[in-house]
Design brief:
InterPro entries: FtsK/SpoIIIE/SftA (IPR050206), FtsK_dom (IPR002543), P-loop_NTPase (IPR027417). This protein is α/β, with parallel strands linked by helices and about 850 residues long. Helix content is about 30%, strand content about 20%. The longest helix has 26 residues.
């Protein structure tokens, strides 16, 4: 037995030695050239001449010999590319060209771990990118070594050629993109397809080059089959493969690889290679060219860097997406679509295909995430202009809220420099605060109730059913940027906002009301801990920009490496799926910076504005902490035009400021003979003097001359000049005016039919309690500014005298003291440009923007 084993081992060693010797002999074998040397030289010369014609410049010349002035970019698709030098004789050579783009593929029997193969792959990619017309060649690379295309980093930074993927998941993702590329496009008759072809080069004018330098470990039969399938169908769709290491070593029957269809095979030997027959043709000697070919060496590093930098800069300028690429034709397509079944808008390009998102029953709301500077505002503005150009203002109304310190939506409102506005905008909040955001949600909730009544009367239950009856009712899209500010904390505002947000999110779709919530982060919002899934579950559309991956599910990392100007658009609530598999619900899109050409954007907005109906009015603008002025109040303006608008039968009302609600209604306080109809302005803020002045001026505009007296008491030295100027204005209006000091103030407590206005009531020595209780019945009303809340409480006799002053305007007063005076717990945060107005008789407690100064 042992003897037989030794014999078998000896035979095995002999066979291995013979095999190794044969392999060396074959590698060193060179095909015998034809004996006619003159004919060989003539043929090489003819091939050199043909190469100059077929592959001029970058495509066919030695890269290290190209002049530095050789221009980038060509006028047509590069069809042939040089891979090396054919050398039938020592002194007879010619450039070896192979057909690729427009024809088929290229395979190397060795992968990029052979440095010759790695070098020629870099050479091929560089030549093709340097020659292809801008925007017509898309390159995707797979390299398990992660080193072959490292020098092409500037192209990745510009978004022209992403970094090569190195693992099996990355391979699957690239194959999925290539498979999507090969899907049939829309028919020529499709009008939407016509718009896309007009905006971007047609698919048949563009090519995708998929370069596989080395396959990742664990590449299975499924991935190999997908590569083979792409090879069979790719060229008809502009997809071409360069695969190194094909066919590879078969580890199992399932991984045995046949020759790649429509490919020119290159067998790598040592030190030359043999070039096989190209697709659809054959060399005269059989299956390969009977000439040794030596692959081109590594391209110079400095040349690769220069070309990549120039191509990247050119792509940034010429290959970028423009806003107009996503909009309908202004001469035929503006305001041409109906919102009855839903809203649709193009949000970017995936390859050269427009990607549209919808507001409809199945996709009612969107969630958008992205870090500061990640392009979130740009994306939202693209969407808003896309909607505004497709739908008439009768079809679409917009609520726009921005909670950050920025100007996201300021371009949609009129300004002194530009009177235009977006006709679809109903309410725009610039640097909104939480109170205004809450007011908007209340308004949307109320609008749902109003529409429910309309639906009931019409006998329908859904928005689309109402529109099918011919009723015109616009869909509403509410955009809330940095919505997490509204939901911050666990106070009453956050609690109510969450409840309203959930109500609108759940029921809005049925009433044609849709939400876009945008934020730098959607995690860690304390008010949503118990409601996160129930609310965000109503937002199937997720848009992840750079830094905004948390709008996707935790196991979906498709947004991990996004570049500026790109986004992941997911219509399945952020769900991922097997990585590398084709995801119909998720796309990578490129979107434009709408402000890249401010002139075009301004012209676009003004054209929309000029197309508006004459009945359209500017949007209601809530401008954060911007001051509000009495002269700008619509109610006051009407009074100044015609004081008869307020007849003697109406109660005079002091105008105090603008409520923080959607329509910015005027906050006022009525004076009648009821007990307690006095007004107290409380807090040390100097705004108290302005509130009193605005109240007096607005009251004066509601009284006929000589029908009421004004008694002015400037007990604060800094207000003397203001009060004297106000007195002159009141006299000019025909009203009797008396100015008193601290001593004369007590004598005025017995007057009838007068407004007693005191700046610095906390310095008065006279006891006002009797006047406060009895004054309103005699037509005497006090308008006083107390800088100290404790003194006010003493002047009214403590809690027993609360009802003697019904009107309270709190400025920078602590919440605890406010609650004590109101008699109930009040949630109030004193801050600049805000006041809390409370009317004991009507029960109103509102945050207002108090009037400051007389005019803007």
């Amino acid at each position: 037995m042992n003897e037989r084993i030794d014999q078998a081992a000896g035979l095995h060693r002999h066979a291995a030695a013979v095999t190794a010797a044969a392999a060396i002999a074959l590698d060193n074998y060179l095909p015998s050239p034809r004996p006619d040397l003159a004919e060989q030289h003539e043929l090489a010369a003819r091939l050199r001449s043909a190469a100059e014609h077929l592959a001029p410049g970058w495509l066919g010349a030695p890269l290290d010999a190209l002049p530095s002035t050789t221009p980038l970019g060509g006028s047509r698709r590069p069809e042939f590319v040089r891979i090396g030098t054919g050398q039938p004789l020592d002194d007879a050579t010619f450039p070896m060209l192979v057909p690729l783009l427009g024809t088929g593929h290229l395979t190397f029997s060795a992968d990029a771990r052979d440095p010759r193969v790695g070098g020629v792959l870099r050479s091929i990619v560089l030549r093709l990118l340097a020659t292809a017309p801008a925007g017509t060649l898309i390159v995707r690379a797979i390299d398990a070594t992660e080193s072959v295309f490292r020098s092409f980093q500037p192209l990745a930074d510009a978004g022209l050629m992403p970094l090569a993927v190195a693992d099996r998941d990355g391979l699957r993702a690239v194959l999925a993109e290539a498979e999507h590329w090969c899907r049939p496009t829309r028919p020529e008759s499709d009008p939407k397809s016509a718009r896309e072809r007009k905006a971007k080069p047609r698919r048949r004018d563009r090519s995708m080059l998929l370069v596989i330098a080395s396959l990742p470990s664990m590449t299975g039969a499924g991935e190999l089959a997908r590569i083979a399938a792409l090879a069979r169908t790719g060229p008809t769709h502009g997809l071409h493969l360069v695969v190194a290491g094909w066919p590879g070593a078969a580890l199992s029957p399932e991984t045995t690889q046949e020759r790649l269809a429509l490919a020119t095979p290159i067998k790598v030997k040592n030190p030359h290679v043999l070039v096989g027959n190209p697709p659809g043709a054959a060399y005269s000697m059989g299956r390969s060219l009977n000439v040794p070919v030596y692959l081109d060496p590594e391209p110079p590093v400095e040349l690769v860097q220069r070309v990549c930098e120039e191509l990247g800069a050119s792509f940034t300028q010429q290959g970028a997406v423009h806003l107009l690429d996503l909009l309908p034709d202004p001469d035929h397509g503006w305001w041409a679509e109906s919102a009855a079944a839903g809203l649709s808008v193009s949000v970017g390009l995936a390859g050269d295909t427009q990607v549209s998102l919808h507001f409809a029953d199945l996709t009612p709301h969107w969630l958008v995430g992205g870090r500061s500077g990640g392009g979130k505002t740009a994306f939202l503005i693209d969407v808003l202009y896309g909607l505004a150009t497709r739908y008439d203002p009768e079809e679409l109304a917009l609520y726009l809220l921005d909670f950050k310190e920025g100007v996201s939506f300021s371009e949609f409102i009129p300004t002194p420099r530009d009177p235009s506005w977006l006709p679809h905008a109903f309410a725009v909040g610039i640097e909104s605060d939480r109170a205004y955001g809450l007011a908007v949600l209340r308004d949307l909730d109320a609008e749902m109730s109003r529409r429910a009544t309309i639906f009931k009367n019409a006998g329908v239950s859904r928005y689309v059913d109402l529109r099918n009856l011919g009723e015109v009712l616009p869909r509403i899209v509410c955009v809330i940027d940095e919505f997490q500010v509204l939901l911050a904390g666990t106070d009453r505002t956050a609690t109510e906002a969450v409840a309203l947000l959930e109500s609108v999110a759940r029921k809005g779709r049925s009433f044609g009301i849709h939400l876009i919530l945008a934020s730098q982060t959607v995690r860690g919002i304390e008010a949503l801990y118990a409601k996160r899934d129930s609310i965000f579950g109503q937002f199937p559309v997720r848009v992840a920009l750079p830094g905004g991956a948390d709008v996707l599910e935790p196991n979906n990392d498709s947004a991990a490496t996004l570049q500026l100007g790109t986004a992941i658009v997911n219509t399945a609530g952020g769900l991922g799926g097997p990585r590398g598999a084709s995801r119909a619900h998720e796309k990578l899109v490129r979107f434009p910076d709408p402000h890249a050409d401010q002139q075009i954007l301004t012209a676009l907005r003004q054209r929309l504005w000029q197309a508006r109906s004459t009945e359209d009015t500017p949007p209601i603008v809530f401008s954060g902490f911007a001051a509000q002025h009495l002269d700008d109040d619509p109610t006051y303006q009407s009074l100044r035009l015609d004081a008869r608008l307020y007849s003697k039968s109406q109660q005079p009302r002091a105008l105090l400021g603008r409520r923080v609600d959607v329509t910015m209604t005027t906050a006022d306080f009525a004076f009648d003979s009821s007990p307690g109809r006095h007004l107290a302005v409380l807090g040390p803020s100097a705004d108290g003097a302005d509130v009193l002045e605005a109240a007096v001026r607005s009251l004066a505009a509601q009284h006929e001359p000589s029908t009421v007296h004004f008694v002015l008491a400037p007990l604060v030295a800094t207000e003397h000049e203001r009060v004297f100027a106000l007195a002159e204005d009141l006299i000019d209006m025909g009203h009797p005016v008396e100015t008193v000091d601290k001593v004369g103030l007590a004598d005025t407590f017995e007057r009838d039919d007068a407004y007693l206005v005191v700046w610095g009531m906390d310095t008065a020595s006279a006891d006002p309690r009797g006047m406060l209780r009895e004054g309103p019945a005699r037509g005497l009303h006090l308008l006083g500014w107390w800088r100290q809340l404790r003194r006010f409480s003493e002047d009214i006799g403590g809690s027993s005298g609360r009802e003697d002053v019904a009107g309270l305007v709190f400025l920078n007063a602590p919440a605890q003291e406010v609650s004590l005076l109101v008699g109930t717990n009040v949630e109030w945060e004193p801050r600049r440009g805000r006041a809390l107005f409370h009317d004991r008789h009507t029960g109103e407690t509102s945050v207002i923007v108090p009037y400051t100064g007389a005019s803007s």
